[in-house]
Task: structure prediction
Amino acid sequence: MEKYINKIAKELNIADWQVQNTIELLNEGATIPFIARYRKEATDSLDEVFITKIRDRLEQLKELDKRRESIIKSITEQDKLTDELEKQILEAETMSELEDIYLPYKPKRKTRATIAKAKGLEPLAKIIMLQKYDNIESRAERFIDEEKEVNTVEEALSGARDIIAEWINENKYARAKIRKLFIKKAVIRSKVGKGKEEEGNKYRTYFEWEELLMRAPSHRVLAMLRGEKEGFLKLKIFPPEEEALEILEDQFIRDDNESSDQVYEALKDSYKRLLHPSMETELRAASKEKADEYAIKVFTENLRQLLMAPPLGEKNVLAIDPGFRTGCKVVCLDKQGKLLHNETIYPHPPENEVKKAIHKIQQLVNAYKIEAIAIGNGTAGRETENLIRRTRFDKDIIAVMVNESGASVYSASKVAREEFPEYDVTVRGAVSIGRRLMDPLAELVKIDPKSIGVGQYQHDVNQPDLAKSLDDTVASCVNSVGVEVNTASKQLLSYVSGVGPSLAQSIVDYRNANGAFISRNKFKEVPRFGDKAFEQAAGFLGIRNSENPLDKSAVHPESYFVVEIMAKNLGCEIQDLMTSEELRKKINLNDFVTEKTGLPTLTDIMEELAKPGRDPREKFGFFEFEKGIHSIKDLETGMVLPGIVTNITAFGAFVDIGVHQDGLVHISQLANEFVSDPNEYVKLNQKVKVKVVDVDIDRKRIQLSMKDAD
Result:
């Protein structure tokens, strides 16, 4: 373990003890959010990013060692392991380096080289490799053997060259040099498959495409790989062949004679038949991994922004899932998101029951004391929004367009069926839209993140890596915000540090059977809510109406005694500390530092006393699309319109301008200055001004610009 600690610490430029303590906490079952928030003294306040890097790098190094052990075992069983070879294996730092060392000893299926060796041609290959002899044919004659199917000199030389070609391919130094050439100078070339021009039209950009692979952005690599997988494109990855052959020639050609000529022929064959395909496969995998990594990073950052979107809060909400032919499904929800009423209105074609729909909306707003109206942004969304804007109410009503991506996935899911077994998918979808306005995080955790619509090539990237990263992101967001234990769904509870799906269900069952929790200590009465789970979860589970005011804060129960001593020393109650800044200013944190409780924890406690259970999300802001712009046909070049960023990719950002088709702001149009990463310039759900650059109605494509759009 020590070698892991030293290596990780060096790579991350942090102290060995920080890595060691983090690994120990992870091994003890501590979660990343728990370590980041409640064990700052142990890690010197490492954040979730660093802790995640330590966890993931440790897993990689363990996997490398597992492969190392397997290779040593295999070579030992062949009785070929030497001290020098074992040393090389133990010192290998990457998987590719390890596999290069193992390649000559890797059990093979029948190859041209193994066939030649079986014919007794290995000694001839060794003679040729010495490159000391001219008239090599006379030496090859000695290996003619009809019984071994070596009938001519050329057959003998050909077999010897096959053996030499394999030696060259298995030479770790040659592989390292060719690998370096591929990494630096390999080109990726894409061509359309024969007869696939029309069917594969969406890949037209890549019908004749070539660029340096190391400079190809993630989205292009994944697009070309997808096109190849679907059979529309043919890809090749190759460096300059002359340079590759020169590298091999420098290493293996040691003279200028007939033997050297044979080695050169073997060298060319080795590169074309063995080395090039091997390196192309390896580089494909490496570039795919790199592209996946970036795409997953974009996806997780988008997801984080979506989950952390400002909540409207506890309001009575009327939610509408718009539609034309099937009508608009309307639901009324109370402040906790409970479904009170549902029905359907038909204000749009073909029914056109506008007056009837307006009257019904007015009735529902009054009957259920509605404070806000949520309108799905899908089909008929802008038309429905326009209807609501025209409707007169007796009081001010907030009307908000809500991104409904994933709502249909939720409405047909097991989670939705469990919540609303007696209602159909249309009602469930409308409920999801309304709840998403009230609290995006609490509602979106019920949906598979891949279905939320903020990713890039999410079905093409490494699925286990994507799932792990998305799961980390959801857990990070949930624990950052905290969870009100008495109202949270089991899906939301399951992401709380130390809880998980099984314990989440137990919490809900206990709550249903015994009523609301009145203190954090009551968590221990829940079946399977043991000491370890309590340690990990308690600080993230709040109780708004608890007898102990600290139960609604992020102060961990293990630190309650500190606050109690603070209050006692000042002769006041804990509640007084939470309401009086004057009292808090009298506290000298250094007086409370112990071996277990340091300044980082004490500082966090003081912040929580000042704003107990504060929500880290921004305050909700209102937004309206441009009046009179409802369809792509209403757009004109040069128009400047308000919009909302709906997705961010490596090549730019997609913006909803209210016409049922998001427009693209290419990365080159995000700002007047150079932008390398769109995520550094725009955020999901950000309200922006955009200028219409081009409109292609037939292809439903809108080009937008944020340059000079203000």
